Amino acid sequence: MIPAAGLATRFLPASKAVPKELFPVVDKPALQYIVEEAASAGISDVLLITGRGKSSMVDHFDRRLDLEAQLEAKGDHDRLEAVRRPAELASIHSSRQPEMLGLGHAVLCAEDHVGDSPFAVLLGDDLIDERDPALPRMLDLQAASGGIVVLLLEVPWDEVHKYGVASVEETQDPDVVRVTGLVEKPPREEAPSNLIVVGRYVLPAAIFDAIRKTPPGSGGEIQLTDAMALMINEGVPVRGVVFRGRRYDTGQPEGYLKTLVQLACSHPDIGPVIREWLVEYVEQELKG
Ligand code: G1P
User: Fold this and answer.
1) Where are the domains of the chain?
2) Which of 146, 208, 237, 281 has the largest count of CB atoms under 10 Å?
3) Superfamily for domain range 2-251
4) Is 163 near ligand 1, meaning CB less than 6 Å away?
5) Is the beta carbon of 225 within 6 A of some atom in ligand 1?
6) Distance from the CA of 258 to the center of ligand 1, in angstroms?
């Protein structure tokens, strides 16, 4: 499931009529990267949690037969393939979150769709570079030993207050830790570590009951972090896969712009031209 009901206030006015999830990241919407990541990990059923004014997100993953016919008539096969691709990635479903009561509440909106099986939650603000996939490892770990699996990333201490933060113990595997506690957006001095939860989770269906038992937390919202902390206290095993790859935070304008530059530079077609131009541009800027 992909929670995408938010108002994206940090991007206003750009996000007033266009969902932030559809903002382009080089040559496709941010949300397409997330669905592609899920599809590459073998997930064939994707549930988007949407909100008011955001149905164009679902349209992006639908066929556009009129456009396809035009491109076909012109013989523009590359664009035709690009237009068809979103609809071929997975079976896309959507459900509305009627009120913005927090990430935990958004996850609860997936209950009817998910049923009893474990499922993955992918947050759109975190882009994971397709060259460094983490989800397959997380799914394997959850399938092998149950419980919850989260993706963790070491960040500078002055950033921990923006995230869910984990207390951990090492395991024999250098890339996997046992999570002994989780706290949402702690002040730096209260953070148990500088390992933050990146927006990738593999959860058992028991999370729904835990969310129902979770009172509003940080920001007055029902937090997924708090529901997972409750499950830790109930003895449910929670493991963290420590991510060492490339991750881009598109949740605020500065990070979004940096992501555009980074991914444009590594794009197979336009990358070389953009890199050359960027070097020249920066040299000019430095000269003043
Ligand atoms: C959410 C989660 C937080 C997590 C973060 C990752 O926060 O609540 O625990 O670390 O995503 O991006 P948000 O960015 O919605 O404030």
Assistant:
1) 2-251, 252-288
2) 208
3) Spore Coat Polysaccharide Biosynthesis Protein SpsA; Chain A (3.90.550.10)
4) yes
5) yes
6) 19
Q: What pLDDT, in 10s, does the model give residues 180-228?
A: 999 999 999 999 999 999 999 999 999 999 999 999 999 999 999 999 9
CA of 112 to the centre of ligand 1 (A): 23
Three-point CA angle 41, 45, 49, nearest 5° = 110
Residue nearest to atom 13 of ligand 1 (CA): 163
Nearest CA to ligand 1 atom 8: 164
Residue position matching structure tokens 């990541």: 37
Q: Which atom of ligand 1 is nearest to the CA of 219?
A: 16
DSSP state of 110: T
- Answer yes or no: are the C-beta atoms of 34 and 47 closer than 8 Å: no
Tokens 């549930």 appear where? Answer: 47
